[in-house]
Design goal:
Elements lengths: L1 E7 L4 H12 L4 E7 L4 E6 L4 H15 L4 E4 L10 H20 L5 H26 L6 H14 L3 H30 L9 E5 L2 E5 L9 E4 L9 E5 L1 E5 L1 H4 L5 E4 L3 E2 L4 E2 L4 E5 L7 H11 L6 H32 L3 H13 L4 H20 L2 E3 L2 H9 L2 E5 L5 E12 L3 H12 L5 H9 L8 E6 L3 E6 L2 E6 L1 H6 L12 E7 L2 E12 L3 H10 L4 E5 L4 H11 L3 E3 L4 H12 L5 E5 L5 H6 L2 E5 L5 H6 L2 E3 L5 H36 L5 H19 L7
Helix pairs in contact: 1-2, 3-4, 3-6, 4-5, 4-6, 5-6, 5-10, 6-11, 6-22, 9-10, 9-11, 10-21, 10-22, 11-21, 11-22, 12-21, 13-14, 21-22
């Protein structure tokens, strides 16, 4: 059983990690996850009352983050109102400026600065005290409270107020940057339609898409989003598919064609017969996958979570030692060392890392989705960025998968020859079988005792006579003598009992831009490209040479593809397999990374792979690699920048070179810059 909430107002990544850890400890909880990027809380419970577990989880959230509002995931989120925060900061800046000019004497100085300190820092103090009573220490509120109260205690009144004020200013900009990033991510979800025009007895009624059933008719007017998958029964138009495919060029569509939810109708009115309910529609599945992608964390994210758990307590311990040990050892005054220790505390919160790293990964997922590349998790981004070998299936991946009968050689009338082969193939879903059925013009015969052998062909009885249709391996297995054929294409031989009747040649065209894709992958530093296919060696070698693939393995059965892939996996580098997501499920699952081509309308493709190329075009693999590498580059930049600044400022603070305001920049200032840098992941050319 699962329950999903949204935590409105969750602005502390450290607190999000604490909430997740505490909920996991509730008895009966199988899985608990708080996604800081989307404020999504997911709870799974087995052998426990889910409502009781959720009530306990809500109490935990309220303890750790009292101001957070717990909502059902489907409810609309509230816009955060920051007017009071702005008034608070501006008024404090003015009063601090006035006090600096007036320079009041004691005790007025203590009273004025203390009042101003409480005005600007009361919420931080309150949270810190509540957290201490709940056993939650070592967060940023506790650290800021100890540091600034310490500054007041040693007589640094203006500095204590200034540090708290700068901290609040930094928090304000940090929240602004995080919310901007969240809005950019959530804009993806705007492609999920919120209304539908139901056509009933000639009348249109506006309803929610969830209320529509399979078989109902809906009308999509110009400018509206298509709410559900279906088949057009009336109308003709151009549709914007960019929400799903990332393609900016509108696509022509007319009666009889399938249309998918998430498309935007640009011109004519369309009447659509619904084929899937809202929850199973293409756009819903894609958006659910994007929203849930953060559950699969990359090693870098896991490292940052573990790092933050130990880093802050260690720094607090060092600050205590810094305040006590040097003055005792050197017999010097305590004041400067206490000040240095307080400065040390200000910089110790790892917010820049805890916030920016998950946002970077989620931004990469969101940016890729806008470009028509669906990446199912942060861990797959990291794997894709490290991939050095890309293995391709041929049919439907590098080629269009649209087979046509190009040539027929037989002593029978061609129409009769085609009728026999088509009759044998009528129960097969293979693209080659479909092309033969399409070419046939005569009525199909009834076939008995049909046996289809993967990688060989098919056999069956027509009017009590045995027929065999397949490749040369099937003919050899049945001891049927066939002539040598030099045609380029897939050759299907036909035999009656042991008598050879003829053959037909079926060809499949390459997709546009395949050769350019291989060149670009090489330019990106991909070490080798490999093609695995069940097609004959002659065709495979010709195609491989034409498109520039490094290695070609042909005439393979499905099990052979897995064996070849496992050999490549033993080379100790990341291997991605690109297939159509339906016929290549075993290989997709075995590879370090499975990439499915043509996710539109293909449930199997979306389920089987780790990455889905929505528009079926190979050049999007280049886009996927670029997005992954850009995201990992930004993640590394944020880690190096945040740790580098903190280490430098910690060292300078320990020797008394930097002041508390500089330490505040090292905390919240670095966080703001890291979050802004993370937002670059959303931009994909």
């Amino acid at each position: 059983m699962e329950k999903i909430y949204r935590l409105d107002g969750l602005d502390c990544a450290n607190c999000a990690a604490k909430i997740e850890k505490s909920i996991k400890e509730i008895q009966g909880v199988e899985r608990a996850q708080v996604d800081f990027a989307t404020t999504k809380l997911t709870i799974e419970a087995e052998n426990a009352d889910l409502s009781e577990v959720c009530n306990e989880a809500k109490q935990i959230v309220k303890k750790i983050e009292p101001d957070v509002k717990i909502k059902n995931w489907q409810d609309e989120s509230e816009e955060e109102n920051n007017h009071f925060k702005v008034i608070q900061i501006v008024s404090a800046l003015i009063i601090l400026g006035v006090l600096a000019l007036v320079k009041p004497v004691m005790p007025l100085s203590l009273i004025a600065y203390s009042a101003l300190y409480l005005w600007i820092g009361f919420d931080v103090l309150k949270t810190a005290v509540l957290n201490i009573f709940q056993g939650e220490i070592f967060d940023e509120n506790f650290l800021m409270t100890v540091a600034t109260i310490g500054a007041l205690a040693i007589g640094e009144y203006p500095e204590a107020v200034a540090v708290m004020l700068f901290y609040q200013i930094g928090e304000f900009f940090q929240d602004y940057a995080v919310n901007r990033s969240r809005k950019s991510i959530k804009s993806l979800v705007a492609s999920r339609p919120d209304k539908a025009n139901l056509l009933l007895d000639g009348q249109l009624t506006e309803v929610k898409p969830e209320e529509i059933h399979v078989g109902d008719y809906i009308v999509v007017k110009p400018g509206e989003k298509v709410p559900l998958d279906g088949v057009i029964t009336e109308g003709r138009s151009f549709v914007d598919t960019s929400a799903l495919t990332g393609e900016s060029v509108p696509r022509s569509i007319e009666a009889g064609e399938e249309i998918l939810s998430g498309f935007i109708n640009q011109e004519g009115q369309l009447t659509i017969k619904v084929t899937t309910v809202f929850g199973e529609s293409t756009v819903s599945k894609i958006l659910d996958l994007v929203e849930n992608a953060a559950s699969k964390k990359a090693p870098a994210e896991k490292f940052i979570t573990s790092f933050a758990r130990y880093y802050t307590p260690i720094v607090v311990g060092l600050a205590i030692l810094l305040a006590i040990v040097p003055p005792l050892v050197t017999a010097s005054a305590f004041y400067p060392w206490i000040y240095r220790a307080l400065t040390f505390l200000v910089i110790s919160c790892p917010c820049a890392l805890v916030i920016s790293v998950p946002l970077s990964f989620f931004g990469g997922i969101g940016g890729a989705s806008k470009a028509g590349v669906l990446i199912k998790g942060s861990n797959y981004i990291e794997t894709l960025a490290k991939t050095q070998t890309i293995v391709f299936d041929k049919t439907g991946t590098l080629t269009k998968g649209v087979f046509e009968v190009q040539e027929i050689e037989t002593q029978l009338p061609q129409a009769d020859f085609l009728q026999i082969v088509a009759s044998l193939e009528q129960g097969s879903n293979h693209p080659i079988a479909k092309s033969i059925l399409k070419a046939n013009q005569k009525d199909l015969s009834s076939v008995e005792n049909v046996v289809e052998k993967a990688g060989y062909g098919i056999s069956g009885q027509i009017d009590k006579v045995n027929y065999f249709a397949g490749n040369d391996k099937l003919m050899a297995a049945e001891n049927i003598v066939i002539p040598e054929v030099h045609a380029i294409g897939t050759i299907i031989y036909l035999a009656k009992s042991r008598e050879f009747l003829g053959y037909l040649v079926i060809a499949d065209d390459l997709k546009a831009g395949v050769s350019e894709t291989m060149k670009e992958l090489k330019a990106l530093g991909i070490k080798q490209t490999v093609m695995l296919t069940g097609d004959n060696r002659k065709i495979a070698d010709a195609i491989g040479k034409k498109i520039g693939v490094d290695h070609v393995y042909s005439e393979l059965l499905p099990a052979d593809k897995v064996s070849h892939l496992e050999e490549l996996l033993q080379e100790n580098h990341k291997v991605a397999f690109v297939g159509d997501g339906m016929n290549d499920a075993p290989v997709l699952a075995r590879a370090d990374l499975g990439i499915a081509m043509g996710g539109l309308g293909s449930d199997a493709a979306i389920e089987a792979a780790d990455v889905v190329i929505m528009n079926d075009q190979p050049e999007k693999i280049v886009t996927a690699v670029k997005v992954a590498r850009k995201t990992m580059k930004i993640v590394k930049e944020n880690i190096i920048f945040a740790l580098g600044v903190k280490i430098i400022v910690l060292a300078l603070g320990a020797v008394g070179i930097v002041s508390m305001p500089v330490a505040v920049f090292a905390d919240v200032g670095v966080t703001v810059l890291a979050v802004i840098n993370a937002m670059r992941c959303l931009r994909v050319k």
